[in-house]
Amino acid sequence: MNISSLEDEALISLIARKQVEALGELYDRYSRLVFSLALYMVDDQPAAEEITQDAFTRLWVQADSYRPEQAKVKTWLVTIARNRAIDELRRRKVRPTSALLEEVWETSSNNLEEMVDGRAQSVRVRAALSTLPSEQRQVMVMAYFGGYSQAEISTELAMPLGTVKTRMRLAMQKLRQLLTSENGTGKSNSMEKA
Amino acid sequence: MSNEHVIEVIPAYVLDDISEEERARVQTHLAICNLCREEMRVFQLVLDELPEIVPQVTPTPALRVHLLRSVASLPQETVSRGRSSIRSAIPWPRLSFWQFLQGSRIPAWVGLGLILLLAISNLLLWQQVTGLRAEIASAETDMIVHPLHAVDGGLATGLVVMDPHGIYGTIIVDAVPSSPEGQQYQVWLSRGETIETGGLFTTWDNGYGAKVIYAPEPLNVYERIWVTIEPEGGSEHPTGKVVLQTLP
What we know:
The structure holds 2 protein chains of 2 kinds. Chain A is mostly helical. Chain A has helices at 8-16, 20-42, 45-62, 73-92, 98-110, 120-130, 134-144, 150-156, 161-180, 188-193. Chain A is globular. In chain A, 71% of the residues lie in helices and 0% in strands. In chain A, α2 (20-42) packs antiparallel against α3 (45-62) and α2 packs across α4. Chain A contains 10 helices and no strands. Chain B is α+β, with helices and mostly antiparallel strands. Chain B is 39% helix and 21% strand. Chain B is built from 7 helices and 8 strands, in the order αααααααββββββββ. Chain B has helices spanning 10-14, 20-30, 34-49, 61-72, 77-89, 97-103, 108-140, and strands at 144-150, 157-162, 169-174, 183-191, 194-201, 209-212, 224-231, 242-245. In chain B, a hairpin with a 6-residue loop joins β2 and β3 (169-174). In chain B, 26% of the residues are buried.
């Protein structure tokens, strides 16, 4: 059996039967994404490695409870890693400020043209995020990458909670339109493939 | 309540930023509403895209090795659960042993012989079980412990506990003061001239701290383990004061 040709869901079935090679294959597919997200959020390599290890270990332990109809494997892994990173940020009582998150965003956006490694998906998402009004992007980036709750964003930015919720919803709706539009920056089926 | 659409709170739901009560309400509604479920699915697809924008960094190859080794040594609960379910599906006679004997045409003396045979067999099995238990107990307690000592003769103390293969290891410290602002404790491991970092940790106000140690090689190959105080985020090589160390 050529394990590298299997779909993620098939690999999960093998992992549920405790086949280490299947976990190795899934690790090869997603460890870079999971590790990069964790590192971006906690800005600490050893902690990011610990989060990555935890995410894949949890997948190993809970593979038999995976339900494909509820989430893609990638979504499941990323959610575990992001939640662990948020726990780590809360434990440290250190959060990236909205200004820092925006700065990181600006820096990485300026490097768009340097991304020649075929990560068209990344370019597409960045392009979509770039088109958001800055106040909407700010709450989105704070919530997703900074692990801020909407109430915490409200406090941090000194704005009513209702405004935060509205901006978040508008940002999500705009991103959805941009990422799923047929003639825009991408197609809906390309999202499914991600 | 479950008939009210929950589109307004779906962004918070997919970001897991929602109270338990509200989550229950959303889930109840999602179970019956295709419209909101589709809305949630699309929002989730949007969130799936976001990690793609962060600069991609490849973790060290050692992490893969460590992960695969560590999961391989975890108990295989799923497999054993599977076996028990197969076993429970096997039909089993509902007669007691005496009913079985009475219903059969086996003479009484053969029955008594069988009982004696069963008793001896049970005794032998019991001896085997006792032996296996003793083996398992010794294997479970066969952890390697390295004491850590304060270099300055202070109260700080610690332990590094690892499994016999050096795959898992944890450092536990006590009476180590909270690290000063902008600094953290860092674990180091050395073998010959090679020095590796084993991770960073902080201590609680009571001086207690614990940290899982990660290293490129199994922990039992290292000759020395020690802790220094370093700038927050850690150093490439030890630069600060040594706080704890294993004895040579």
